[in-house]
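agent> fetching stored inputs for the threonylcarbamoyladenylate docking request
agent> found them:
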Amino acid sequence: MSRIVSVNDAAIAEAAEILKSGGLVGMPTETVYGLAGNARDGAAVAKIYEAKGRPSFNPLIVHVGSARDAAEIAEMDDLAMSVATAFWPGPLTLVLPRKSTSGISELATAGLDTVAVRVPNHKAARALIEAAGVPVVAPSANKSGSLSPTTPEHVADGLGDAVDMILAAGACAVGLESTVLDLSAGVPVVLRPGAITAEDISHVLDMDVGYARENGEPDAPKAPGMLLKHYAPDTPVRLNAVDLEAGEALLAFGSIKFMGIKGGGAAGDLPDTQIRNLSESGDLHEAAANLFAMMKQLDNPAHTKIAVMNIPETGLGIAINDRLRRAAEAG
Ligand code: TXA
Ligand code: MG
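agent> prediction call returned; pasting tokens
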């Protein structure tokens, strides 16, 4: 059973240590309880996806203490600064161009060149982020497909041992996930409705702000997952490779001892630029944490294709394969 601990200074300090050492904390926010991990620690981010049982990697929201901290991670233009000044701290998430120096795990942003950031308005969340001293990713602390948790007991019931400690601060004031506002494409668009409405934002920006909608359905907000662009390399991706063609790069998983190159040679002799191993020991957490960064490293016009070895369709492997299949189809 997971540990539920009432918020006080000692509990915050302990939770911060858990985050710094790669563990997961149930974090109260004003919207819903989040499943918090260090945004710069790919293995911690992989644990979050595993705990949620997400069949695919949706990008996560990075929680920070201030607009200034957000600007370390994302490009904050004038529009972003205006809404940040008006609504932060609060239940608003901004999707912005990601800074190359952000240090955020590629898995947390699912390989996209944008990042979602939010400054929560909850004493415990703010204290935890400050004490940990790192940006914190926190999706709602529920299994994928079930309701978002608004009490510490919901978190414990849904996630059990997958969370190292739950900071308990009673029921969430808002009870609904934050509004997600996309500012990355010039025109502000609400991707996910929440307590702060398009109209509220429109007043502050003095410009029209709409909701992203299904084609032809004027009033149906688009499901956030459906709005997502998916990361795909420019180089074609070939799945379940058992050997290599000359000119292909190899994205390996596990041992490459028996991987040969057609026409002669062994994968082990490929130049360093042409091969990456998601996890030599076959560890799915490690593989998930490396996935997007390594795909990018192999995405090079010098390679005819990126050949990917078979990944088992179990646990995190399901989400890894989901992303790999999308990458292969896009090519
Ligand atoms: O209120 C909240 O936002 C809660 C609390 C814990 O802060 N968190 C939350 O996170 O709801 P999550 O992971 O369940 O929802 C993140 C949403 C998803 O709809 C995701 O598609 C969207 O944000 N999102 C994240 N990064 C994105 C990006 N780069 N582009 C577009 N959408 C993004
Ligand atoms: Mg959620």
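agent> quick read of the result: Residues 214-218 have pLDDT under 50 and may be disordered.
agent> awaiting further instructions
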